[in-house]
Amino acid sequence: xxxxxxxxxxxxxxxxxxxxxxxxxxxxxxxxxxxxxxxxxxxxxxxxxxxxxxxxxxxxxxxxxxxxxxxxxxxxxxxxxxxxxxxxxxxxxxxxxxxxxxxxxxxxxxxxxxxxxxxxxxxxxxxxxxxxxxxxxxxxxxxxxxxxxxxxxxxxxxxxxxxxxxxxxxxxxxxxxxxxxxxxxxxxxxxxxxxxxxxxxxxxxxxxxxxxxxxxxxxxxxxxxxxxxxxxxxxxxxxxxxxxxxxxxxxxxxxxxxxxxxxxxxxxxxxxxxxxxxxxxxxxxxxxxxxxxxxxxxxxxxxxxxxxxxxxxxxxxxxxxxxxxxxxxxxxxxxxxxxxxxxxxxxxxxxxxxxxxxxxxxxxxxxxxxxxxxxxxxxxxxxxxxxxxxxxxxxxxxxxxxxxxxxxxxxxxxxxxxxxxxxxxxxxxxxxxxxxxxxxxxxxxxxxxxxxxxxxxxxxxxxxxxxxxxxxxxxxxxxxxxxxxxxxxxxxxxxxxxxxxxxxxxxxxxxxxxxxxxxxxxxxxx
Length: 526
Prior knowledge:
Blueprint: H1 2-18, H2 30-35, H3 50-62, H4 67-103, H5 106-112, H6 117-135, H7 142-158, H8 165-179, H9 182-190, H10 199-206, H11 210-223, H12 233-255, H13 268-279, H14 292-300, H15 303-331, H16 337-343, H17 345-365, H18 369-389, H19 394-422, H20 426-446, H21 459-496, H22 499-506
Helix pairs in contact: 1-3, 3-13, 4-7, 4-11, 4-12, 4-13, 4-15, 6-8, 6-20, 7-8, 7-12, 9-20, 10-17, 10-19, 11-16, 11-17, 14-20, 15-16, 15-19, 15-20, 15-21, 17-19, 18-19, 18-21, 19-20
Domain Major facilitator superfamily (MFS) profile: 81-484
Protein name: MFS general substrate transporter
Pfam families: MFS_1
């Protein structure tokens, strides 16, 4: 089969070369025209025909375009890809965190037998068991995302009619299995569409918990008041927030393109431009190159991967708890259950602006390390205030929640876009992002357990979270220093090469090979 595909593309190249005097391929569509209009699959799980990817890469090497034409293609990608990704993530966060809003409703706790804080934290922790076990192998495009959304949507919907503590634990495990691979898979997916300097802002738009947190708080504020002879308010909360997930799964399947080379919303020339702009940045490959196993071995032997994992795991202790405990923390300040849900909206809205500003400025300045340290510092201050003043001042404690939400949630797009920029080739990038999220979420199994002191307003939990943010800050500083050193070393190695050695490097097959992160030409974003 591989030889047949190679023969097809070789024949296409020969046809193009015969007519090169008439068509110089500046439009970037000649190789695609020789193959037909659309890449196809043999069955649901089979990969797309790689001949189409090769054709787009070849056209990308020849296409000529202006900066305005590149911006036009990027706008089309933004208008088609981002809305689908944003909606899928919003519904993901609804289904994951609505249990936090439900927990402060007595009827929910009575239905599932949650009689103390220990039972509650176990419900939160057990979610991450299936999540961690299946994170690594679960990477893919629209078909994987369709299955993922469907699985966790059905699990969330089942909570509506479930009863008993054991039933809730089982559904939380199943929901974790459904969500496994979604986050890392989406980061990996977006790296096929956007340049390194564009990624943080897009991730912040697509995958920050602040926007769904604000919307979820408003929905909970209204839905928990609903009551019928069949359903109570907390059941409406799970029902209304699970159904859109299942609808979104179908939309993802039919409308989310797998790769730029298979994007039907782009013309052949636009597909070539979309690929060319990335090739000049980091050359992602949809197939071929390093195998997944080799990518895994490359990741576990890479010091950078472990440092990224430590940064993520440290700040994720706070993220994994605040999304569930925020309504409880506000209620403990003296507010009613319903008002506490409404008061979650403001910290999330302010946090959303912090996330966007941090990501926008990070992309604009081509910096990740200092911005990550700034976000760690903001969240650290918030936790210190909570640990020292929560019993003294309601205003100070509520203000601290703004700092915690803004600081914590702005870290995710910054750290993951930094990691995606630091690994090459593409297969290593895909395994690397999954590795970071998977290992870090193993820590998240224990994260809810740090809030073991409800009788002391969770002050010890806040102090532990502050310590984790300090560790994340120091690791980010060390990693930035290391990557800056590697860039200087690579520049020195490159300048020391002879003319013949440089020509051999430049003469590699640029249509199929990527610059690996151990190549002296590779420049790490710091």
